[in-house]
Amino acid sequence: MKDLKGLHFVTGEKGGVGKSLFAMVLLEYLNNLGIEHKFYDADRSSPDVGLAYGEFYHEFVSSLNKDTTSELDKLNDLVNNHDDVLASNKKDITNIDLEEEEEKEEEELSTKESKTQIYFSEDRRESFRADKLYNDVSDGNLVVVNLPAQVELLVNKWLTNRSILDDSDFPIYYWFVTDGSPESLTLMERSLRQYGDRIEHIIVRNSGLNKSVDDAIIRHSVLESMRSLKTKMVEMPQLILSNPQMQVVKINRLKLSDVTRSGAEIKGLGSLPQIRTKSFLQKCHIQIDKIAVFGEERT
User: Fold this and answer.
1) Domain coordinates of the chain in residue numbers?
2) Does the predicted model carry a pTM greater than 0.85?
3) ∠ CA 121-122-126 to the nearest 5 degrees?
Protein backbone atom coordinates (compact mmCIF):
# COMPACT_ATOMS: atom_id res chain seq x y z
CA MET A 1 0.00 0.00 0.00
CA LYS A 2 1.26 3.48 -0.86
CA ASP A 3 2.71 5.52 2.01
CA LEU A 4 0.34 8.50 2.22
CA LYS A 5 2.51 10.57 4.56
CA GLY A 6 2.82 14.07 3.11
CA LEU A 7 2.06 17.77 3.42
CA HIS A 8 -0.74 19.05 1.18
CA PHE A 9 -1.25 22.80 0.79
CA VAL A 10 -4.43 24.06 -0.88
CA THR A 11 -3.26 27.34 -2.36
CA GLY A 12 -3.68 29.73 -5.25
CA GLU A 13 -2.33 32.95 -3.74
CA LYS A 14 -5.05 35.02 -5.44
CA GLY A 15 -8.29 35.56 -3.54
CA GLY A 16 -11.65 34.40 -4.88
CA VAL A 17 -10.41 31.51 -7.04
CA GLY A 18 -12.18 28.76 -5.07
CA LYS A 19 -9.47 27.57 -2.66
CA SER A 20 -11.82 27.03 0.27
CA LEU A 21 -14.33 25.14 -1.85
CA PHE A 22 -11.64 22.82 -3.18
CA ALA A 23 -10.26 22.30 0.34
CA MET A 24 -13.72 21.03 1.28
CA VAL A 25 -13.74 18.77 -1.80
CA LEU A 26 -10.35 17.31 -0.88
CA LEU A 27 -11.36 16.69 2.73
CA GLU A 28 -14.57 14.99 1.61
CA TYR A 29 -12.52 12.77 -0.70
CA LEU A 30 -10.23 11.68 2.14
CA ASN A 31 -13.19 11.13 4.47
CA ASN A 32 -15.04 9.04 1.89
CA LEU A 33 -12.06 6.73 1.47
CA GLY A 34 -11.41 6.54 5.20
CA ILE A 35 -7.92 8.00 4.78
CA GLU A 36 -6.71 9.32 8.13
CA HIS A 37 -5.46 12.89 8.02
CA LYS A 38 -5.02 16.09 9.97
CA PHE A 39 -6.43 19.38 8.72
CA TYR A 40 -5.53 22.98 9.52
CA ASP A 41 -7.21 26.12 8.22
CA ALA A 42 -4.52 28.81 8.11
CA ASP A 43 -6.97 31.53 7.05
CA ARG A 44 -7.26 33.66 10.19
CA SER A 45 -9.72 36.21 8.78
CA SER A 46 -12.22 33.80 7.20
CA PRO A 47 -11.71 30.24 8.48
CA ASP A 48 -14.96 28.85 7.05
CA VAL A 49 -13.43 25.47 6.20
CA GLY A 50 -11.87 25.20 9.64
CA LEU A 51 -15.18 25.93 11.34
CA ALA A 52 -16.84 23.09 9.42
CA TYR A 53 -14.03 20.53 9.20
CA GLY A 54 -11.24 21.50 11.60
CA GLU A 55 -11.12 19.61 14.88
CA PHE A 56 -8.40 21.97 16.16
CA TYR A 57 -9.98 25.29 15.26
CA HIS A 58 -12.55 25.65 18.03
CA GLU A 59 -9.98 25.22 20.78
CA PHE A 60 -7.81 27.87 19.15
CA VAL A 61 -10.70 30.36 18.99
CA SER A 62 -11.58 29.83 22.64
CA SER A 63 -7.95 30.32 23.64
CA LEU A 64 -7.98 33.83 22.17
CA ASN A 65 -10.25 34.92 25.01
CA LYS A 66 -7.75 33.82 27.66
CA ASP A 67 -4.81 35.80 29.05
CA THR A 68 -2.05 34.85 26.62
CA THR A 69 0.58 37.32 27.83
CA SER A 70 3.89 35.47 27.65
CA GLU A 71 6.75 35.72 30.09
CA LEU A 72 8.76 37.39 27.35
CA ASP A 73 6.09 40.07 26.93
CA LYS A 74 6.20 40.69 30.68
CA LEU A 75 9.97 41.02 30.55
CA ASN A 76 9.73 43.47 27.67
CA ASP A 77 7.22 45.54 29.65
CA LEU A 78 9.67 45.66 32.54
CA VAL A 79 12.51 46.73 30.28
CA ASN A 80 10.42 49.44 28.62
CA ASN A 81 9.53 50.81 32.04
CA HIS A 82 12.84 50.22 33.78
CA ASP A 83 13.00 53.74 35.26
CA ASP A 84 9.73 53.18 37.09
CA VAL A 85 10.89 49.77 38.18
CA LEU A 86 14.10 51.10 39.71
CA ALA A 87 12.33 54.04 41.28
CA SER A 88 9.91 51.76 43.08
CA ASN A 89 12.71 49.47 44.31
CA LYS A 90 11.40 46.54 42.29
CA LYS A 91 13.63 43.66 41.25
CA ASP A 92 16.64 44.69 39.15
CA ILE A 93 16.23 43.10 35.73
CA THR A 94 19.39 44.39 34.06
CA ASN A 95 20.97 40.92 34.08
CA ILE A 96 18.05 39.18 32.41
CA ASP A 97 19.08 37.66 29.11
CA LEU A 98 16.14 38.53 26.84
CA GLU A 99 17.60 36.65 23.90
CA GLU A 100 17.78 33.48 25.98
CA GLU A 101 14.18 33.97 27.10
CA GLU A 102 13.07 34.46 23.49
CA GLU A 103 14.80 31.26 22.38
CA LYS A 104 13.17 29.42 25.27
CA GLU A 105 9.71 30.61 24.25
CA GLU A 106 10.35 29.71 20.60
CA GLU A 107 11.31 26.20 21.65
CA GLU A 108 8.15 25.90 23.74
CA LEU A 109 6.02 27.02 20.80
CA SER A 110 7.67 24.57 18.41
CA THR A 111 7.40 21.55 20.71
CA LYS A 112 4.04 22.24 22.34
CA GLU A 113 1.80 19.23 21.83
CA SER A 114 -1.54 20.86 22.62
CA LYS A 115 -3.89 21.20 19.66
CA THR A 116 -3.60 24.70 18.22
CA GLN A 117 -4.47 26.42 14.99
CA ILE A 118 -1.67 26.91 12.47
CA TYR A 119 -0.97 30.20 10.73
CA PHE A 120 1.93 31.90 9.01
CA SER A 121 3.11 35.23 10.37
CA GLU A 122 5.91 37.78 10.16
CA ASP A 123 6.18 37.50 13.94
CA ARG A 124 9.26 35.37 14.58
CA ARG A 125 7.80 33.73 17.67
CA GLU A 126 4.40 33.02 16.14
CA SER A 127 6.00 31.51 13.04
CA PHE A 128 7.25 28.62 15.16
CA ARG A 129 3.66 27.40 15.51
CA ALA A 130 3.80 26.26 11.88
CA ASP A 131 6.50 23.76 12.85
CA LYS A 132 3.68 21.55 14.11
CA LEU A 133 2.96 20.79 10.45
CA TYR A 134 6.46 19.38 10.03
CA ASN A 135 6.19 17.39 13.26
CA ASP A 136 2.80 15.95 12.31
CA VAL A 137 4.00 14.75 8.90
CA SER A 138 7.27 13.42 10.33
CA ASP A 139 5.17 11.32 12.71
CA GLY A 140 3.64 9.62 9.68
CA ASN A 141 0.52 11.72 9.14
CA LEU A 142 -1.11 13.06 6.00
CA VAL A 143 -1.64 16.77 6.66
CA VAL A 144 -3.87 19.16 4.69
CA VAL A 145 -3.54 22.94 5.08
CA ASN A 146 -5.94 25.49 3.62
CA LEU A 147 -3.91 28.63 2.88
CA PRO A 148 -5.32 32.16 2.61
CA ALA A 149 -4.45 34.48 -0.27
CA GLN A 150 -1.19 36.44 -0.37
CA VAL A 151 0.71 34.27 2.07
CA GLU A 152 3.16 32.62 -0.33
CA LEU A 153 6.15 34.71 0.79
CA LEU A 154 5.61 33.67 4.41
CA VAL A 155 5.17 30.00 3.49
CA ASN A 156 8.31 30.12 1.36
CA LYS A 157 10.21 31.72 4.23
CA TRP A 158 9.08 28.92 6.54
CA LEU A 159 10.00 26.21 4.03
CA THR A 160 13.46 27.62 3.32
CA ASN A 161 14.48 28.93 6.76
CA ARG A 162 13.58 25.60 8.36
CA SER A 163 15.37 23.69 5.53
CA ILE A 164 12.17 21.71 5.04
CA LEU A 165 12.46 21.55 1.26
CA ASP A 166 15.98 20.12 1.42
CA ASP A 167 15.93 17.97 4.54
CA SER A 168 12.42 16.51 4.85
CA ASP A 169 11.78 12.86 4.00
CA PHE A 170 8.18 13.39 2.90
CA PRO A 171 6.54 14.84 -0.23
CA ILE A 172 5.03 18.32 -0.33
CA TYR A 173 2.08 19.07 -2.60
CA TYR A 174 0.62 22.35 -3.82
CA TRP A 175 -2.98 21.98 -4.95
CA PHE A 176 -2.92 25.24 -6.90
CA VAL A 177 -6.44 26.49 -7.61
CA THR A 178 -6.78 28.82 -10.59
CA ASP A 179 -9.66 30.61 -12.28
CA GLY A 180 -7.62 31.13 -15.45
CA SER A 181 -7.21 34.88 -14.97
CA PRO A 182 -3.85 36.37 -16.08
CA GLU A 183 -2.95 37.23 -12.48
CA SER A 184 -3.72 33.72 -11.24
CA LEU A 185 -1.76 32.04 -14.04
CA THR A 186 1.23 34.33 -13.53
CA LEU A 187 1.30 33.46 -9.83
CA MET A 188 1.05 29.78 -10.73
CA GLU A 189 3.94 30.06 -13.19
CA ARG A 190 6.07 31.80 -10.57
CA SER A 191 5.40 29.01 -8.09
CA LEU A 192 6.25 26.29 -10.62
CA ARG A 193 9.53 27.96 -11.56
CA GLN A 194 10.47 28.72 -7.96
CA TYR A 195 10.03 25.21 -6.60
CA GLY A 196 10.47 23.02 -9.66
CA ASP A 197 10.21 19.35 -8.73
CA ARG A 198 10.85 20.00 -5.02
CA ILE A 199 7.12 20.57 -4.59
CA GLU A 200 4.62 18.61 -6.64
CA HIS A 201 2.06 21.01 -8.06
CA ILE A 202 -1.41 19.80 -8.95
CA ILE A 203 -3.34 22.38 -10.95
CA VAL A 204 -7.00 22.69 -9.99
CA ARG A 205 -8.80 24.27 -12.96
CA ASN A 206 -11.89 25.98 -11.60
CA SER A 207 -14.14 25.73 -14.64
CA GLY A 208 -17.07 26.57 -12.38
CA LEU A 209 -15.79 30.15 -12.24
CA ASN A 210 -14.41 30.30 -15.77
CA LYS A 211 -15.46 27.87 -18.48
CA SER A 212 -12.53 29.08 -20.60
CA VAL A 213 -9.87 28.25 -18.00
CA ASP A 214 -8.30 25.57 -20.23
CA ASP A 215 -8.00 27.96 -23.17
CA ALA A 216 -6.44 30.56 -20.86
CA ILE A 217 -3.79 28.08 -19.72
CA ILE A 218 -2.97 27.09 -23.30
CA ARG A 219 -2.44 30.74 -24.28
CA HIS A 220 -0.29 31.54 -21.22
CA SER A 221 3.47 30.99 -20.86
CA VAL A 222 2.78 28.84 -17.77
CA LEU A 223 2.06 25.96 -20.14
CA GLU A 224 5.79 25.57 -20.83
CA SER A 225 6.57 25.07 -17.13
CA MET A 226 3.68 22.65 -16.75
CA ARG A 227 4.90 20.54 -19.66
CA SER A 228 8.49 20.57 -18.40
CA LEU A 229 7.45 19.36 -14.93
CA LYS A 230 4.70 17.04 -16.22
CA THR A 231 2.28 18.78 -13.90
CA LYS A 232 -0.91 16.93 -13.02
CA MET A 233 -4.29 18.63 -13.38
CA VAL A 234 -7.81 18.19 -12.08
CA GLU A 235 -10.98 20.05 -12.94
CA MET A 236 -13.43 21.51 -10.43
CA PRO A 237 -16.84 22.03 -12.07
CA GLN A 238 -19.48 24.48 -10.92
CA LEU A 239 -21.30 23.88 -7.67
CA ILE A 240 -24.77 25.10 -8.58
CA LEU A 241 -25.89 26.76 -5.36
CA SER A 242 -27.25 30.29 -5.08
CA ASN A 243 -25.53 32.88 -2.88
CA PRO A 244 -28.27 32.60 -0.21
CA GLN A 245 -27.86 28.81 -0.22
CA MET A 246 -24.08 29.13 0.17
CA GLN A 247 -24.69 31.48 3.09
CA VAL A 248 -26.85 28.80 4.73
CA VAL A 249 -23.95 26.35 4.39
CA LYS A 250 -21.51 28.89 5.83
CA ILE A 251 -23.66 30.14 8.72
CA ASN A 252 -24.56 26.61 9.82
CA ARG A 253 -20.93 25.46 9.43
CA LEU A 254 -22.03 22.58 7.23
CA LYS A 255 -19.75 20.11 5.53
CA LEU A 256 -20.59 19.33 1.92
CA SER A 257 -21.45 15.82 3.05
CA ASP A 258 -23.99 17.33 5.46
CA VAL A 259 -25.71 18.94 2.48
CA THR A 260 -25.74 15.69 0.49
CA ARG A 261 -27.22 13.74 3.41
CA SER A 262 -29.72 16.14 4.94
CA GLY A 263 -29.96 19.15 2.63
CA ALA A 264 -33.69 18.62 2.13
CA GLU A 265 -34.22 18.97 5.88
CA ILE A 266 -32.18 22.17 6.30
CA LYS A 267 -34.12 25.42 6.15
CA GLY A 268 -33.01 27.49 3.17
CA LEU A 269 -31.66 24.56 1.17
CA GLY A 270 -34.03 21.81 0.05
CA SER A 271 -33.71 18.70 -2.07
CA LEU A 272 -32.31 20.30 -5.25
CA PRO A 273 -29.10 21.64 -3.59
CA GLN A 274 -28.75 18.21 -1.99
CA ILE A 275 -28.77 16.52 -5.42
CA ARG A 276 -26.51 19.14 -7.01
CA THR A 277 -23.91 18.96 -4.23
CA LYS A 278 -23.80 15.17 -4.45
CA SER A 279 -23.26 15.34 -8.22
CA PHE A 280 -20.58 18.02 -7.80
CA LEU A 281 -18.62 15.92 -5.30
CA GLN A 282 -18.84 12.82 -7.47
CA LYS A 283 -17.40 14.68 -10.46
CA CYS A 284 -14.59 16.19 -8.38
CA HIS A 285 -13.68 12.87 -6.79
CA ILE A 286 -13.46 11.19 -10.18
CA GLN A 287 -10.94 13.87 -11.16
CA ILE A 288 -8.83 13.30 -8.03
CA ASP A 289 -8.98 9.54 -8.58
CA LYS A 290 -7.47 9.89 -12.05
CA ILE A 291 -4.20 11.45 -10.86
CA ALA A 292 -3.67 8.70 -8.24
CA VAL A 293 -1.98 10.92 -5.65
CA PHE A 294 -3.48 8.83 -2.85
CA GLY A 295 -2.92 5.43 -4.44
CA GLU A 296 -4.00 3.63 -7.58
CA GLU A 297 -6.82 5.07 -9.67
CA ARG A 298 -10.17 3.76 -8.47
CA THR A 299 -12.79 2.60 -10.93
Assistant:
1) 6-56+117-239, 68-114
2) no
3) 55
